[in-house]
Every structure is written in structure tokens, then in C-alpha cells.
Amino acid sequence: MSDPQGCLVDQVGWIPVMGGDGPKEVPLREALLDSHTFAELVPDTPTMLPVLLRQVLVPVVLDALGDIDDELWAELMEAGEFAAEQRLKISEYLDARLPRFDALDATAPFGQAAGLEHPGGKVHPVSALMPHVASGNNTPLWDARLVSDPMPLPLGVAVRWLLHAQCWDTAAIKTAAVGDPQVRAGKTTGNRIGPLGRLGVVALLGTTLFETIVLNMPQGARAAGDRPQWDRAPMKPSWELRTPTGLLDLFTWQGRRIRLVPDEREAGEPVRVRWVVLSAGDRIDGPQPEDPHTCWTIKQDKSKGSVRYPRRHLPGLMGWQGLDALLAIERDTAGYETSKLLVQTATATLTGDLASDYLLRVATCGMVYGTQDSIVSDILSDDVPLPVAALRADHAVRGSVILVCEQARTLARTVDHLAANLMRAVGGEPASRGKGQQPGSKLLHVLDPLVRRFLTGCRRNPSGDELDQAHKAFETLAERAALAAAEELLHRLPGTAFSGRTVTRREQGKTVTHTYQQANAERFFHSAVRKTLIHLHPQTAAAEETTA
Fold first, then answer.
1. I want to staple 259 with a disulfide (CB 3.0 to 4.6 A). Which of 225, 277, 519, 544 is the partner?
2. How far apart are CA 460 and CA 316, in angstroms?
3. CA of 521: how far to CAs of 94, 438, 480, 535, in Å?
4. Is 337 helix (H, G, I), strand (E, B) or coil?
5. Whole-angstrom Cα distance, residue 422 to residue 64?
6. Cα–Cα distance for residue pair 294/364, rounded to 1 Å
7. What's the rounded Cα separation, in Å, for the pair 19 and 40?
8. What DSSP string runs through 396-435?
9. For residue range 273-327, what is the model confidence (pLDDT) as tens digits?
């Protein structure tokens, strides 16, 4: 029997949004029908953003409205809200599925397997769904909460983390579920990380929640038999190895079997969840629909030919450091290809269905797993302003934003080279790349707001003269930051760096002599800076072209 306190459509506030009066949590129907009045989603953690879009918001709209073509997509973006007929379709769709959107339903609770149990009635604290909270053997001795007395969560919050586990959970061995025929010795091994854990997730953000939903809706016809998890048979303790039938199936993939265990309560009291049952879920096998929420790397394999695989985000890098992949609308020489969502956005700018000064942002997120993918080592996220005009190969803005991002990276490498040469000049050896804190990384953090300011300004679709002025302004501040970074390195040098040292080594069968001195290191550094900042030092750039 359905419980009104578990109704995610109208009763439980669980979709976190930013309204005119601040952040709040609203039921699903309100989040969709009033999406044009909300600025954005305000998730608990950046990795929750794609979860809410993929597991709920986008699939409901796609399934309720049917196939989305470029014409309907353009109409939605122009209107800025659902039309009366579309609102009716979404409401009727939700009304017809109210029991499947009940988190406390006795036979098919939303996103859960009813009656799921571990042998002996074992349960896990609800924090087992939350990768950023220590649980089990990882709980510190000084933690204020005992494992036997975990902090309860409101039902809506628990449902969000339930969906988060479906997308991002680790690949650790799972406790057996009673009734699962594939259990071995009370455990389930071979579990894989959640579907999003394999990706460097790229989600598009509009100026309202409505536009964000539309920007993340893939265009095209639905695959035969494709349907979301709430239109499938209720989940049981057993799981399958199968191929997703389409994007709706992929978006709402049930990578785990989970059951929330609410606390006992008196009538009228809010529902709290302290415990959870968590076991193995479905595994993806064989070819699957191309995921629209990631960029791609393409490599040539002698036996397989062209191989495409999702690009993963790297720790320590800002989102704009992967801008070349985001803007690779067509496969480029570096072997990148951007996401399907950015391709259809680029197409809309070419046809005039999306203004070239539209205020688009790209949210990137990912997880770094460790110890055979059994733990979460790091959570990566960024929010990058992306000029829509840069998605067009024929637009000057595209070359400008790529150049600025490359200049920032080059300046960082130049500072690293200076540090390495100075270290050799005093008789030491520089740390290997990736080992220790590199001075170039510190410079990148100084340049980060400058790059973002440039990207934000380019979203206004500036003219050629304005672009040149913006370039010179960026390069002026970037040069100042690079020189300050160099001065900090030079200030710490001992006097022996001035005379330097000479090193003789064998390279490619020949004896080669290198002399490392402070003066040489500084000269190389300043030369590299001038070559990089071509708007600020055009004479140097021209001389380089002549020499070449």
C-alpha cells in the first residue's frame, strides 16, 4: 500500500533547487513544472548534479514528451518553460506512476528492492551510501557518532544518496542478499563501479533549471523497448549482466540493490532513515548507447581500428584545461571528440536556434577510485563558463579561448622549467613530474580567475577589436603573475647558483656537456614568456615566425 509520506511526486521535498527566496527542497512535480522559476539545482555535492538529471529529471521529461528532435528542442529553449500541453503530459505521466515514485511502497519502492535482506538481518549505516562520510572500519576513533548509532537522514535526502550510490558506488565486495543465486560464501565479488564512475562527466548548465534540463536532453529517436527503471518490473535480490536497451535504461541504471530502512515513528512524524541494506546490482555488458555526458578520446588500434573511450578528468586540473576536448565538435588531430550534448548545442548555434551570446556553463565532475576501485580517493569538480560562439569552427572566439587556455598552461610549464634549471644550477636534481608540488601548479591557481574572466567576457560574443583588447589585458596580468612566480624562486636561491655548474653525461651514445647557471635559466625563462604572450610581445612572435 502506498504511503503518502513516501510520495516523491507531491509530498516529499527532495529535489534541491535555488528559488527566488533561497535554496529549498521541492517534490518532483514542482521541480519540473516550475523549473523555469528556479535558477539551478543546488546538490549536496557536485557529483549529485548529474545523478538528479539522469536518474529523474531528464528521463521523466523524455518519457512523458516522447522523442526530442531539433525543432522541439529549439521551441523549448525559445519558450523558456513547458507549454500548457506539455505540462499536462508531464502531470499525467507522473499521476499514472505515483506508486512507482513512492519511496516507502511495500512492493516496489522507488529505486529499491522491496524486502531486500542480508543474512542474519544485517544492516549498514545510511552513510554507506555517502562516499565522503567515513563508515565501517574507516570510522575514526574520535568520531562523534558510533557505527551502531548513525545519524538519521530525512527521507528525501536518503533517496538522493540512494540514487547517488546507483551511479557512483565503489567496486568493493558486497554483502550477500538473501535470495540472490549468484552469492559465493556470503559475498558478491566482481562488482563494478557505478556507471558514472567510468566517465569524466560533462553536464550543461543553463540560466534556469528548465534550460538545464533541456540542454541535457539528447535529441533523436528512442531505441525499441527503451524505458526507465520505474517502468520495469520491480527489482528483486537477484541481478543481471545485460546490455542497456537505450538511453532511458542507461540513465536510470540500477547498479545496486538497495533498501532504505526507516526508523519507527508515530503517526504524523517525519520519516527518518538511519539504516540501509546494500548489495550487488545489475552489470553492463556488451555494446551500449553512447553516453552523452562525457567527452571521448579516439585512438587507432591495429586489430580493432578506431577505438573510442570516455575521457576521465585528472586530479589537480581545472575544467578549462580540458577545453580543447570540450570544443572538439568534430574529431581533431589530437583524437578528441566532445559530448553529444555539446554537438547538438553547437548545431543550434549554427542554425540560429540558440543565440551566440547565450550564457552557457559546463559542469564537470568525476571520482578517483583507489585500492582496486574499492574506495573513493578524490572527488573532482568544476564549473566552467563556455562561450557558445567557441563551439563554431568559423568563429574568432573559438581560437581566442583555446589560445588563452594554452597560454596559461605554457606559462606554468615555463615556470616549472625555470625551477628545474635553477635546481640543477645549485647542484640538485628537480623532482620528477607528478612528484611533489610544482611551482607551475601554484601559478595555474593564480591564473585561474584570469582565464575564467576571459571566458566569461567571451560569452558576450565580442568583436575582433574587443577580443584583441581582452587578450592584451589577460596577457598583461598573466605576465605579471609569471614574473612574480619567477621572482619567488630566484629570491630563495643561494649564491652558488650564479656561478652554476657544468654536467657531462652520455646522451644517445655521445658525450654532452651542459652548463646550468642562474643567468641562463633567467634568459630562457624570459624568452619563453615573450614567445608565449604574442599580443603583448608581437615583435618576438614575428621574429619567431621569420626564423622558422
1. 277
2. 29
3. 67, 17, 18, 24
4. strand
5. 64
6. 9
7. 8
8. HHHHHHHHHHHHHHHHHHHHHHHHHHHHHHTT--PPPTTS
9. 999 999 988 998 866 788 999 998 888 777 777 788 888 888 888 888 888 888 8
